[in-house]
Write a structure and sequence with these properties.
The chain is α/β, with parallel strands linked by helices. It contains five helices and seven strands.
Length: about 180
């Protein structure tokens, strides 16, 4: 049984500090450079910084109706269960399911800092703003559920991109 109270807690405590300028591409793959800041539960005044890439890709082959699903690569079993839980809770993830997205996460680099998360947060957001990287995202989340924060961000980006993607598909006569 999936612990929905832990998932709800992770959702409530996920914050997007710096949103990328680019949305999910209609006809290609989109790869975001993520930074997730968390505070270890057993070490107040310390911060864990995780960096990596997360990618949303369109299916490589067309699937028959009813065969749509979200594929996840590089995520834990807990993250997969979270996605199922979101679906069971009636979350608006139809765009994910309808087009059969694959969400992939690359290897994550982790750094443990002996600094307060607020100080690290301010510095990382300033760096993101000055980087010129239109695909960078900065999040805060719960240390032991950081992947759920990453999935929340991806769901939000896909939902924000949905209208533009539908327009592009219609313009090309694909819908």
């Amino acid at each position: 049984m999936y612990d929905d109270s832990a998932a709800a807690y992770a959702l409530k405590n996920t914050k997007v500090l710096y949103l990328p300028e680019r949305r999910i591409d209609s006809f290609g793959d989109t790869s975001y450079n993520f930074i997730i800041l968390t505070e270890p539960l057993d070490a107040v005044g310390h911060c864990r910084v995780r960096t990596g890439k997360v990618e949303a890709t369109r299916p490589r082959i067309l699937r028959p109706a009813g065969m749509y699903d979200v594929e996840m690569e590089g995520f834990s079993t807990e993250a997969r269960q979270f996605m199922e839980w979101m679906r069971s809770q009636g979350a608006a993830i139809q765009a994910l399911v309808k087009y059969g997205f694959t969400i992939a996460r690359t290897a994550v680099q982790e750094e443990y800092l002996h600094e307060n998360i607020c100080e690290v947060r301010d510095r990382v957001v300033r760096d993101a703003e000055s980087s010129g990287d239109c695909l960078r995202v900065v999040l805060t989340g719960i240390d032991d559920a950081w992947e759920l924060s990453l999935l929340c961000f991806m769901i939000e980006m896909i939902q924000q991109s949905h209208e533009i993607n539908i327009f592009d598909f219609k313009r090309r006569g694909l819908l």
